[in-house]
Design goal:
The complex is a heterodimer. By secondary structure, chain A is an alpha/beta fold. Chain A folds into 2 domains: 4-200, Rossmann fold; 216-337, Rossmann fold, CATH 3.40.50. Chain A contains 8 helices and 18 strands. In chain A, the strands form 4 sheets. A 7-stranded parallel β-sheet of chain A has the order 7-11-6-1-4-5-12, sandwiched between helices. A 5-stranded parallel β-sheet of chain A has the order 15-14-16-17-18. Chain A has a 3-stranded antiparallel β-sheet with strand order 8-9-10, covered by helices on one side. Chain B is built from 8 helices and 14 strands. In chain B, strand 8 (160-166) and strand 9 (169-175) form a beta hairpin. Chain B starts with a strand and ends in a 5-residue tail after the last helix. The chains are: A alpha/beta, B alpha/beta. At the A-B interface, helix 3, helix 4, strand 7, strand 9 and strand 10 of A face helix 3, helix 4, strand 7, strand 8 and strand 9 of B. The complex binds flavin-adenine dinucleotide (FAD).
């Protein structure tokens, strides 16, 4: 009772990174709250899930295993979570801010009348005082997310309703094994008690999932371009540089919206979060939603022709100049001085 | 047999074009400095609705929006593009609603319509990017949902077939009506205004707008009832005030903070050869690159 639940997203029997990241976060929150960390897997042929997740510190793994439950559809997964949460009364429920989590989370929260905060960038535990009501709430989940057009960060709490629900994007939390030998218990749900046949109203008749070849998150060096790059063609310069030094190319949302780069390269609050050894921000102004996704980079170089661009404040090196002038010089020097 | 389609749309501040004066000195958002626009994905949703109307004779498209009086603008924009009528849900009691209270209000309003077949809305609004209201409404009215739609391929009384564009792929799904569908920005753009419809609907107004206007307007609207944009308050939708506004919102904003970046001691460099070369030398020497 009153534990922390993480919904596991599963594709082809593999638990998604975002779910493992949430388990890592969930483990540390559970330690703080002195409660258990539970994971729920809904799908088909789930025997291999335990070995993928227990090492993240999962105390209880609940399996809802039925071939009709894969691939994901909204109502059956909603029905299982809603009934399970009514029984188990979790205090916190976390899921990925993915196309599944963003389809499922709101339905569950609507059914349970529990608040849901989307796209949190940080989750913490703390107290909350409602001065008007003269009430103090202990150990609430602080759901922290950048809000509204930039420059502000809101801390959201759900004082009364449980579970406190939040979604988090892939890459925002770190993924870390808690203990290789951690052993939790596995529970199997009797699926027929949780889902009724009328829940299967939508059928997936065709499905093509691409395994993304791109893994910006894993790249130690990221060269990122913004609206200041000016065109898709000009982005080639960044790709050349990346090719030469062995880096990946990222982009700001303004660059993605303008069609200069593909969405999967977007870094920031509504893209991926990265922590490379080196981040080179080219023609990026440095709005909060972008910075949220890269500020933990070990070293940041900003190339911007505006000496007052906000990105400069968080950069280790500020080069005030035009990208198209600076990058070729970098490429030239690198080629000349390395084999 | 035509379809009865309701499109949920929102007027949003244009957060994509946030100017320098968007923030007040106290750190709160200066809404007045931001233009109010038709939420982009709601326009994609409207286009899907209008395509169904074109394809299935006898279909109608109604626009439902919740917001302040000026949100009537997006209803007019919809009428100019082919929607049949509009409903503005407006009341002080809605102020401060989070996504759940908003979806409660919308779900009450939807129950006011007689027999709806499809509800179509944008996946998310650019001022919050939560993508929550669509699914929350569906749950409240007990309907199934298809989110992340790129194209409604087929929609008859027997079935609806939708192509979904997900983060990592595509899906084609099939369901029965009624259905709530949320539409992505990858769907086709909304058609432009139609000149004839602009002529027809340019005087379309809500009751409040009419009252603010002069007698000529009021006479005109009496003559041409299609110029009436319906305005609903809490009373018209039989909503329970306990579930609305701040009171009906389980999430509370505890704190809003101005973001002050951990400003670093940056080294300032010029784009001159000397500066760039010494930076590169350093990066190579300490194995940051290479
Ligand atoms: C809910 C929400 C979520 C968001 N999520 C994200 C997100 O995940 N990621 C994200 O990036 N943004 C996100 N944004 C958008 C964000 O607020 C900014 O609009 C965006 O990051 C700006 O991108 P930019 O810096 O490339 O463009 P701009 O702000 O237009 O900056 C362009 C910069 O390029 C410089 N420049 C121009 N020409 C040159 C040149 N020749 N050489 C060098 N410099 C040059 C200019 O001085 C300027 O600083 C989000 C916004 C909202 C409202």
């Amino acid at each position: 009772m009153n534990n922390i639940f993480v919904y596991l997203e599963i594709e082809d029997g593999i638990v998604a990174d975002v779910s493992l990241e949430l388990l890592t976060k969930g483990r540390s929150l559970a330690n703080q709250l002195k409660c258990k960390l539970e994971a729920i897997a809904i799908g088909s042929q789930l025997d291999g899930i335990g070995e993928q997740v227990f090492s993240f510190g999962v105390d209880v793994l609940t399996l809802a295993d039925d071939k009709k439950l894969y691939p994901y559809t909204s109502l059956p997964h909603t029905a299982i979570l809603v009934k399970l949460f009514k029984e188990e009364q979790p205090q916190i429920a976390l899921m990925g801010a993915t196309s599944i989590g963003r389809d499922l989370g709101p339905r569950v929260s609507s059914a349970l009348f529990s608040g849901l905060t989307a796209d949190c960038t940080s989750l913490e535990i703390g107290d909350h005082e409602d001065k008007k009501e003269g009430k103090v709430y202990k150990n609430l989940l602080y759901q922290i997310r950048p809000a509204f057009g930039g420059n502000i960060v809101a801390t959201i709490v759900n004082p009364e309703q449980r579970p406190q629900m939040a979604t988090v994007r892939e890459g925002v939390m770190k993924k870390e094994i808690a203990d290789k030998h951690y052993k939790g218990e596995t529970k199997k749900l009797d699926v027929s008690k949780y889902v009724s046949s009328t829940d299967f109203v939508v059928n997936v008749i065709e499905r093509h999932m691409e395994k993304s070849k791109l893994n910006i998150k894993a790249s130690p060096i990221i060269i990122s371009g913004g609206y200041g790059i000016g065109s898709r063609e000009n982005f080639d310069l960044l790709f050349d540089f990346a090719h030469v030094i062995g880096a990946e190319v990222g982009a700001s949302r303004a660059a993605v919206d303008a069609g200069f780069a593909d969405h999967e390269r977007q870094i920031g609050q509504t893209g991926v979060t990265v922590r490379p050894k080196l981040y080179i921000a080219c023609g990026i102004s440095g709005q909060i939603q972008h910075v949220a996704g890269m500020q933990e980079s070990s070293m940041i170089i900003a190339i911007n022709n505006d000496p007052n661009a906000p990105i400069n404040a968080i950069a280790d090196y500020v080069i005030t100049g035009n990208v198209e002038e600076v990058i070729p010089k970098m490429i030239k020097y690198y080629k000349k001085n390395t084999k | 047999m035509g379809l009865k389609i309701v499109v949920l749309a929102k007027q949003v501040p244009d957060t994509r074009n946030v100017g320098k004066d968007a923030m007040k000195a106290d750190g709160t958002v200066n809404r007045a400095a931001l233009a109010a626009i038709f939420n982009p994905e709601d326009l994609n949703a409207l286009e899907q609705a209008l395509r169904l109307k074109d394809k299935y004779e006898g279909s109608t498209v109604s626009i439902l929006t919740m917001g302040p009086g000026r949100a009537a603008e997006i209803i007019r924009e919809s009428l100019y593009r082919g929607a049949d009528d509009g409903f503005l849900l407006t009341d002080r009691a809605f102020a401060g609603s989070d996504t759940l209270a908003t979806s409660y209000a919308l779900s009450c309003a939807i129950k006011n319509f007689s027999k709806v077949d499809v509800i179509i809305c944008g996946r998310q609004a650019i001022d919050g990017d939560t993508a929550q209201v669509g699914p929350q409404v569906a749950e409240k009215i007990g309907w199934p949902q298809i989110t992340y739609a790129e194209e409604i391929l087929e929609c008859t009384s027997q079935k609806i077939v939708v192509k979904r564009r997900l983060e990592k792929g595509i899906e084609i799904v099939e369901g029965k009506l009624p259905m709530l569908v949320t539409v992505n920005s990858s769907a086709p753009e909304c058609r432009p205004r139609n000149a004839k419809l602009v002529m027809k609907f340019k005087h379309a107004k809500t009751i409040s707008e009419k009252q603010a206007g002069d007698q000529d307007y009021i006479d005109l609207v009496d003559e041409r009832p299609y110029l009436n944009i319906n305005e609903w308050s809490v009373n018209e939708i039989q909503a329970d005030a306990n579930w609305l506004g701040l009171k009906g919102s389980p999430t509370k904003v505890k704190e809003i903070e101005n973001v002050v970046f951990q400003a670093k001691e940056s080294k300032r460099l010029s784009p001159d050869d000397f500066d760039i070369e010494s930076l590169m030398r350093e990066l190579i020497a300490n194995h940051t690159i290479g």
